[in-house]
Structures are given as structure tokens and as C-alpha cells.
Specification:
Blueprint lengths: L1 H22 L3 E6 L2 E3 L7 E8 L5 E4 L3 E2 L4 E2 L5 E7 L7 E9 L2 E10 L17 E4 L34 H6 L1 H7 L3 E4 L3 E3 L4 E6 L2 E3 L7 E7 L6 H13 L3 E6 L44 H9 L14 H18 L3 E4 L7 H14 L4 E4 L6 H5 L13 E2 L2 H12 L6 H6 L12 E3 L16 H11 L5 E5 L37 H19 L1 H5 L1 E7 L3 E7 L4 E7 L5 E6 L10 E4 L7 E2 L4 E6 L3 E7 L1
Parallel strand pairs: 2-9, 10-11, 10-21, 11-16, 16-17, 17-18, 18-19, 20-21
Antiparallel strand pairs: 1-3, 3-7, 4-8, 5-7, 6-7, 8-9, 12-15, 13-14, 22-23, 23-24, 24-29, 25-28, 26-27, 26-29
Helix pairs in contact: 6-7, 9-11, 11-12
Bound molecules: calcium ion (3 copies).
Length: 622
């Protein structure tokens, strides 16, 4: 008897399940990408439609041709389908419809007019001065987005792991400040929509944190609501371009944030390397990526392991993942007109993918430039990753971390300056060392001024070097005010004056201390010289004199040259060196544009330079 009633109950449940599932109509939750432009090199465009009950669906897009039979995953939650956008397609909204025997659902898709290329997609070069901004910590231009409905409670300026209110409007408002400082390109930390909740996976000081830094996307096609909207981003790009400033996007292709919806419902079975409960942990042993004695398992941990053990590792070797990421990169550029990309965690993503990604990028935006993050102090390791160095496709540029560490040791800690020319001597290993992005500070390291031994004099010297040596100089927001912060969260401090209620406003002279103003003016002077003196942007680099604490070099063009002298010593120095390599002949009078040294005259091919302790001179022909 008992068995029979159990059987009936089981049958009823089964019937109920069958009926409800079968009776459910399809739903569309989102479409990636939400738009695309006509006359793109990517045509057809692959749409990934996310929804429910999509099994056996037919897809139509109003006025656009579907090229293939849609691929639908088993759970009926994702459809991949290709649409062709005719070159003369009229810009505007189209309706996507998904139809099953149980009903149909619609979602919008927009055809965009291609953006005019003039003044957009410009790339960057050593002629630029780049400035890194952590969006949340720079300026709050719109307090109304500080506690958005969808993600309340993540804003708390007293908590260094919460949102502080900085946003895209804040950057727009401060463009005149950046212009005054001499900035020509802004690298913004990621603006992808990060999780709308507290993060209990990555505890900071044993407490939950937020994704204020932007590196934990939950949506690759949306702007973080704390920062603004796509419309605001477009406004920023346009406003920056009008001010002669380029915009560089920080992109992440290695992983998603821990709460990305894909983690529980991956669009393809191999979308991620591993799952939430079963995955490798990233060992960060990147040295074995080109170790001839490697074993596969160790290399897999580096390439497929989850970053910090909680960031789901995307499998770029899955053709759908690859296609999705490539289109995503192009979409941000094509939809906004931005100029360059800083690519996060470059070395943890397979070269096979980067080859395809780079080719697609160059096809669509030939002048575009990418700088890859390979965080390593070793030139041998780092140089491996730059474009065409080892018969595969790397980024055009790399962040020059080997030089960064040398700069810190010499100018912050006061260690021998000769480590700098010794590091530059290894430039022969790079595909193009002039294209590297040079830095003395960034958002993942403690600030320069928090290094042991750091002083404003040392920071000035470091800036003088950065803005006169080879490469694309990159400044870090707040370093022009000698801001401090010894570790990862405190290095991301709030720019004073960027936030409602701030006691002072360091964006204007009257809000700066005397020391801050002096440093600000010094850097502004350097950026102006960088703009004014062509050899500083385009000249060959020649080391003229190297001793333990003095370093002189020339930047040489055919028609003009600049000679830079750095005295890193705590004592004044007098040095004599040959300037024939700078094409300066006897009798030539040279003037220091930084006013640290008196005028000098070339005699017997040499100059004798006296410099005060810890100072720099930039000599030009008088
Ligand atoms: Ca805000
Ligand atoms: Ca969010
Ligand atoms: Ca990876």
C-alpha cells in the first residue's frame, strides 16, 4: 500500500514538472553585444542571447539577416547566433525575437552609425603624458550615484574597501586640472559593472569588501552604476578629446568577478577553467611560462588557475569565449571612440587567443595601441611578452616594471643610480623599448612617498627622469601632491578636494600646501618641456656619464638634442663628460631649463656641470 501511494505521488510530481517546464514561455534576459555598428570588419556579429526556456528557439532580428542555425545550450539559457549588418543598414533599434512552441520573447538590439575616425581611436605614443586615475578615488562629480538602488550600502568613505563616490562626471569636471598639469592621456581603472553586493569571498582585514577598484566584473557590457552610464562614458570621451586628452580603457580578459552570473550558469560547458568548487589555484609562477624545463601541470596552474583562488578563470581557448571577448573589446572602442587599452593580467591568458584578439583589433582600429600588464621586475621575463618578440603576437607596449623597481630603489631609497642605466642597457631584449610605458607609481603598489627613505627631492628627481627618458611616461594620480599610502588599499587614497565635504581642494593652487605647489609646478614644468622639446619625445637615448650617484644622458634628434644630468647624491656634485654624442660642438653654450645648474660651455667636446644635492638639469643649446 505504502509503495503504491509513493509511486502515485512520484508520478504526480513528474507530471507537474513536465507540464510546468513545457508550459513555460521563452524569456530574454539580455543580449551581448547590445549594439554594433555598420561597416565593421566584424560582420556577421555573434549575439549571445541569455534567457530562460530557449530550447529549440528560432531567432529573428527585425531587418537583419541571421546567418546560421543558432547554437543553444542544453539548459536553454544561452543562444549563440550570427547576424549580418548590411553596410547601408539604417542606424536605430531593431527587435530580436525568440520563438518556441510555447511562445515568444523580444529584446532590443541597436544598429549604430560608425563613429567618425577623425580624432578617435588614436593610440598613444612617447609624445603623450599618461595619467592613471582610480575612478572611485579621484573625484565625486555626481553624489546622486553614491548609493544606487541596485547596490545600496556599498558606499562608505570611512571604509577603505568600500566605494568612495568617485565617478566619470568627476573626471569630466577635472579635465581642466589635468590639462594644466600637462596630461594628454588618461588611463582609467576598469569601469565594468562590478558586483552589486558585498564580497564575502575575498575578505579584507577579515571583513567583506566591494569591487570599487573595478577588476571584478559582473557584466562586461555595462558601466558600473557608481561611476555613471554608457552615455556618461561617451560624454567623457568626447570632452577629453575636445581638451586634447586621450582615453585609455583598462580591460580584463583573464577572469570575471566572483559573482558573475556565468559562474553558476556557464554559457558553454568549458567557459571557465574549472568550477567554483573544483579549480586550480593560480601559483603566480610565471617564470615557468617560458622555462624549457617546465612540466605541464605547473604551467596549467599559472594559465588556468583562479587568480587569488577566487576569480573565475575564463577559458579563452573555448571558441565562444574567445569570440565573446574579442567582440567585447571592439565594442567598447567602437561604441565610445576611446584611444587605447591597458590590458590586465596579460601573461595569464594564452598566446593563441592574444594572436586572434590583436589581429581583430588591428583590422578594425589600425592606429590603436595596447599596453599589457606583465608585473615583473625582470627584463628577460618581461620583454618576452612584447609584440613579435618571440614569434607570437604580444601587446604594442608593456608597463615597464623592471624600470619601475629601479626608479624606486634609486630615487626613493637613495640607492645607487647606476641601476637605472644598467636596466636600460637591457633594452636590446625588447621588440620596441621606446613604446614601453614608464612609471614611478601605480595603484597596485605602495606610493613613492611611502617608501623608506623617500623625500620630495627624490620624487622630483624621479619625475625629471621619467619625463626625459625613453618610453611613454605615466603619472599616478596624487603623486603630484606627494600623497602617501604604503600598501594596496591606502595607495588608492582619495584625491583631496575631489569629494563633498573635503577640508581642502588640492585641484586648485590655494588648496595646496607650499610643498605640494612646488612639486606640482615642477612636474608641470617637466610636462611642458616634454611637449616643447622634440628630442624628449622622439630622440635616441645615449648614456653620457654613469657613476654611483650621478647619471647624464642625451636625447638626440637630427636637428636638436637635450642633455639631462641627475645628481642623486645627498651632496652637491661636479662632473665632467663628453657631449659629442649629443652633437654639441666646442663653444656651444648650454642652458639648464630647470634652473638647477648655471650655463655651461662645451670645451674639448666636454662640459663640466655642478649640481646641488639631489637635483636634475635639462640642458638645451642656448
Ligand atoms: Ca558619485
Ligand atoms: Ca555594480
Ligand atoms: Ca587564465
Amino acid at each position: 500500500m505504502k509503495n503504491r501511494s509513493a509511486l502515485i505521488r512520484l508520478f504526480c510530481v513528474h507530471l507537474w514538472l513536465t507540464l510546468t517546464v513545457a508550459a513555460q514561455a521563452p524569456e530574454i534576459l539580455r543580449v551581448d553585444p547590445p549594439s554594433w555598428w555598420s561597416r565593421s570588419t566584424v560582420n556577421p556579429v555573434r549575439l549571445m542571447i541569455h534567457g530562460r526556456n530557449l530550447q529549440n528557439a528560432r531567432v529573428d532580428v527585425q531587418g537583419l539577416r541571421i546567418i546560421n542555425t543558432p547554437t543553444i545550450n542544453e539548459r536553454g539559457t544561452y543562444i549563440f547566433v550570427d547576424v549580418f549588418i548590411a553596410p547601408d543598414a539604417r542606424p536605430g533599434e531593431r527587435s530580436i525575437s525568440v520563438t518556441t512552441p510555447r511562445g515568444s520573447a523580444r529584446a532590443p538590439f541597436e544598429v549604430l552609425a560608425p563613429l567618425n575616425r577623425a580624432g578617435r581611436f588614436q593610440g598613444f605614443s612617447p609624445a603623450d603624458v599618461m595619467y592613471l586615475i582610480m575612478i572611485d578615488r579621484f573625484a565625486d562629480g555626481d553624489p546622486s550615484n553614491n548609493n544606487p538602488l541596485q547596490s545600496r550600502g556599498l558606499y562608505d568613505r570611512a571604509n577603505k574597501f568600500y566605494y568612495h563616490g568617485g565617478d566619470l562626471q568627476g573626471v569630466i569636471d577635472r579635465l581642466p586640472y589635468l590639462k594644466e598639469l600637462g596630461v594628454t592621456a588618461i588611463w582609467l581603472t576598469p569601469w565594468y559593472d562590478n558586483y552589486d553586493r558585498l564580497n564575502y569571498v575575498e575578505l579584507k582585514e577579515e571583513k567583506p569588501s566591494t569591487g570599487f577598484h573595478g577588476y571584478n566584473p559582473q557584466d562586461f557590457y555595462a558601466v558600473e552604476e557608481h561611476f555613471g552610464s554608457l552615455a556618461k562614458l561617451r560624454e567623457l570621451v568626447e570632452a577629453a578629446h575636445r581638451a586634447g586628452i586621450k582615453i585609455i580603457q583598462d580591460q580584463v580578459m583573464n577572469h570575471t568577478g566572483p559573482y558573475h552570473p556565468w559562474v553558476d550558469d556557464p554559457p558553454t560547458p568549458a567557459w571557465f577553467n574549472g568550477t567554483k568548487t573544483k579549480h586550480l589555484k593560480n601559483s603566480f609562477q610565471t617564470w615557468e611560462l617560458h622555462d624549457p624545463h617546465y612540466i605541464k601541470q605547473l604551467r596549467r596552474e599559472t594559465m588556468e588557475g583562479w587568480f587569488l583562488d577566487f576569480l573565475p578563470d575564463l577559458n579563452q581557448l573555448d571558441p565562444e569565449v574567445s569570440r565573446y571577448l574579442i567582440q567585447n573589446t571592439l565594442w567598447w572602442i567602437g561604441a565610445t571612440g576611446l584611444d587605447g587599452i591597458r590590458m590586465d593580467t596579460w601573461q595569464y591568458v594564452p598566446n593563441e587567443f592574444w594572436a586572434e584578439w590583436t589581429a581583430a583589433l588591428r583590422r578594425e582600429f589600425p592606429n590603436f595601441v595596447v599596453v599589457g600588464e606583465v608585473k615583473d621586475g625582470d627584463v628577460v621575463h618581461t620583454s618576452y611578452f612584447q609584440r613579435e618578440r618571440m614569434l607570437f603576437t604580444g601587446p604594442d607596449s608593456l608597463l615597464d616594471f623592471p624600470l619601475f623597481y629601479a626608479i624606486r630603489r634609486a630615487f626613493a631609497e637613495g640607492k645607487p643610480i647606476d641601476e637605472i642605466p644598467k636596466t636600460l642597457a637591457k633594452d636590446y631584449l625588447y621588440h620596441d623599448s621606446d613604446a614601453l610605458v614608464t612609471l614611478l607609481g601605480g595603484h597596485d603598489d605602495g606610493r613613492f612617498m611611502s617608501e623608506e627613505g623617500a623625500s620630495v627631492a627624490g620624487l622630483k628627481l624621479a619625475n625629471a627622469f621619467l619625463l626625459t627618458t625613453r618610453g611613454v611616461p605615466q603619472l599616478y594620480y596624487g603623486d603630484e601632491l606627494a600623497m602617501t599610502g604604503p600598501d594596496e588599499p591606502t595607495t588608492r587614497g582619495d584625491f583631496p578636494g575631489g569629494f563633498p565635504g573635503d577640508k581642502r581642494n588640492a585641484f586648485i593652487e590655494s588648496g595646496r600646501t607650499k610643498e605640494e605647489q612646488e612639486l606640482f609646478s615642477y612636474i608641470r614644468r617637466l610636462t611642458r618641456l616634454h611637449t616643447e622639446l622634440e628630442p624628449l619625445r622622439k630622440g635616441g637615448l645615449f648614456n653620457l656619464y654613469v657613476s654611483e650617484q650621478q647619471y647624464a644622458y642625451a636625447r638626440v634628434r637630427q636637428t636638436s638634442s637635450v642633455v639631462v644630468v641627475l645628481n642623486n647624491d645627498k651632496e652637491p656634485a661636479e662632473i665632467e663628460f663628453d657631449v659629442t654624442a649629443a652633437n654639441f660642438t666646442d663653444g656651444t653654450k648650454l642652458r639648464d631649463r630647470l634652473d638647477a645648474s648655471k650655463d655651461v660651455i662645451v670645451r674639448n667636446g666636454k662640459v663640466r656641470v655642478s649640481l646641488p644635492k639631489r637635483s636634475a638639469a635639462i640642458f638645451v643649446r642656448l
